[in-house]
Amino acid sequence: MDNLAIARLLREIADLLEIKGDNPFKIRAYRNGGDIVANHPHDLATLDAVGLREIPGIGKDLAMRILEIASTGDCAYHRELIAEFPPSVLDMLRLQGVGPKTVATLYRELGVRTLDDLEAACTSGRVRAIRGMGPKKEALILKALAERKQYAGRHLLPDAHNTAAAVVTYLQAQAPDALLTPVGSLRRGRETCGDIDILVTGADASLLELFTRYRLIERVLGHGDTRSSALLQGGFQVDVRLVPDDCRGAALQYFTGSKAHNIALRDRAIGLGLKLNEYGVFRTADDVRVAGTTEDEVYAALGLAWVPPELRENRGEVEAASNGTLPTLVELTHLRGDLHMHTTASDGRDTIEGMAEAAAAAGLEYIAITDHSQALAMANGLDERRALAHAARIRGIDGHAGVRLLAGIECDILPDGTLDLNDECLAQLDIVIVSVHSAFNMDKAQMTDRLIRAMENPHVDVVGHPSGRLILRREAYPFDIDAVVAAAGRTGVALEINCQTNRLDLSDIHARVARDRGAPLVISSDAHSTRGFSRLRWGAIVARRAWLQPKHVLNTRPFAAFTAGLRRHRQPS
DNA sequence: GCCGTTTTCGGCCCGACTGTTTTCAGTCG
Q1: Distance between CA atoms of A173 and A160, rounded to whole angstroms?
Q2: CB A167 within 8 A of CB A196
Q3: Nucleotide nearest to A228 (CA to C1')
Q4: Phi-psi bin for A67: left (phi > 0), alpha (psi -120 to 50), beta?
Q5: Model confidence over A500-532: pLDDT tens digits?
Q6: Of A239, A403, A466, A496, which has the fewest CB atoms closer than 10 Å, so is most exposed?
Q7: What confidence score (pLDDT) does residue A1 get?
């Protein structure tokens, strides 16, 4: 059982306990446990009870459950709860406007077990007959059922960013003096966003009214003096929140989250005799406000340095902010080179010259041209002869547009871990990226061996998109991140943070493991056209979420220092 | 269920909105 499978069961236990009406703090403990397991970078199935209990939030009982799930794939406690409520009722919990109390009532009073049951109960008018429910509740449920499929799921960070930017542009035009800031998971830079929150100050409630007339709105979900929310075409839910100017800092902090970060802050506030909410920091004793106008001030009132939004996941940032050890995070502008891109030689749309010119416009000093190797026939991959000829052309225009060019390749890692081009060819290139593009259905041990064997080839410099995931489309192939990171540290092969918007691979969590173990990292666009360089910003955000500083990222170095740091130019240790 | 420079017991984050209601419960973020 992997972490996500364990997390799923713990979260289901939490949901079932909630429907059952159990102790809310017990529910929170299980839900929290699920989050901890899901976000944990290491395979928890390998830990014993002592190791598990060292993780904050995992106590005696949760450690026992995790052990049981890891070894048997199931859990007696979970089975007990399922006996009381069929697992199909959990689907109802996911409906907008339907919570645990409603689910419990519907199940107990009407015997509703499934979404289909629920629809039938609503259309036949049985729901409105229940005390505490009425025609509006019935209609709400029907609407939620109808839209469940269409609006289900999350969205890629860049999509959320673009949607938010369009809404902000619209609102700004209505209220030129207003200060509009996307908050929530978008501000934190999470790889996917469920909905979009936009914080407004310096405007009055009429702006919320104007928002409800935004042209891309499919349906207004709610409208008040402090908040309006709507579903946009394309399935985004957008919440616009209006707060008084002097609460801006507190509201920014509050609505940026994450929930776990905020809970940790409120915990800390309580310890200091303070109360933290979206209006400010207040002394508990006399309710006098001591901070809230700026975010800086809010953190300062809690004895903390301002925490970059990307770090606000309760992964150690509160402690670091408290003792002055927050890292100075890498920024997009620190990137001097881009090491992964394609041209018309394989499946790119632009020429070497075009890519160099676009790189110069993007402020880059050097780039590596890394077209595909022959195994990707679909992408017109290069064999040894073409690869070397291509390299000669690249070197022939080194310095074009003032950009230093490296002649490279993105070479396929074959299923047995050997490479798609021979060593003699690879040795003559300036940089070699190796990637998995086929045979994803291997087991964890095989895939780990495959990756490590490729990394042990002395001509390899970088592993491209190491996990192979496609966000919201395909899970990563199974592999042992710890072993791969260790191999990277041992061989000097860098691990890539690929900036394709649905890859972002390594993920923030894996990149942090790499950082903590001293494995070299690079941030690369994997551009397939001149527009692709703009994607570097997303990789920078992933890197920041992984606590990376410029020194952790090879391509923040000037050209000479960068090439000297490549594996092929390192002295064997 | 978790946790501990007050504590091994008694706490545990908080406010807005909605709908069904005459004072509040449920849901959401």
Answers
A1: 20
A2: yes
A3: B17
A4: alpha
A5: 998 999 999 999 999 999 999 999 999 988 889
A6: A239
A7: 63
State the residue for tokens 């993105």: A410
Q: Is the CB of A128 under 7 A from strand B?
A: yes
> Would you state the structure tokens that stand for residue A357, as one six-digit string?
């010119």
In angstroms, the CA of A1 and the C1' of B29 are apart by 32
Task: Give residue A41's pLDDT.
Answer: 78
β strands within A404-540, DSSP E:
404-412, 431-435, 462-463, 494-498, 521-524
Dump the DSSP string for A15-50. HHHHHHT--HHHHHHHHHHHHHHHH-SS-GGG--HH
Query: Could you tell me the pLDDT band of residue A232, with boundaries at 50, 70 and 90?
Result: confident
- Longest Cα–Cα distance of chain A, Å, equals 80
What is the Cα–Cα distance from A444 to A403, expressed in whole angstroms?
41
CB-to-strand B under 7 Å, chain A 400-439: none
Confidence of residue A152 (pLDDT cuts 50, 70, 90): low
Asked whether the whole model's pTM tops 0.90, one would answer no
Q: What is the pLDDT of residues A371-384, one digit of tens each?
A: 999 988 778 889 99
Kindly indicate the confidence band of residue A91, based on its pLDDT and cuts at 50, 70 and 90.
confident
- Using CA atoms, how far residue A32 sits from A9, A338, A384, A401, A496, in Å, is 12, 39, 52, 52, 31
Can you tell me the mean pLDDT for A55-83? Answer: 92
Q: How many C-beta atoms lie closer than 10 Å to residue A477's C-beta? A: 21
Give CA–CA dist A572/A472, Å, rounded. 40
Nucleotide in closest CA–C1' contact with A99: B27
Closest nucleotide (CA of A53 to C1')? B2
C1' of nucleotide B25: residue with nearest CA: A132
For residue A504, what are the β-bridge partners? none
User: Rounded mean pLDDT of A296-318?
Assistant: 95
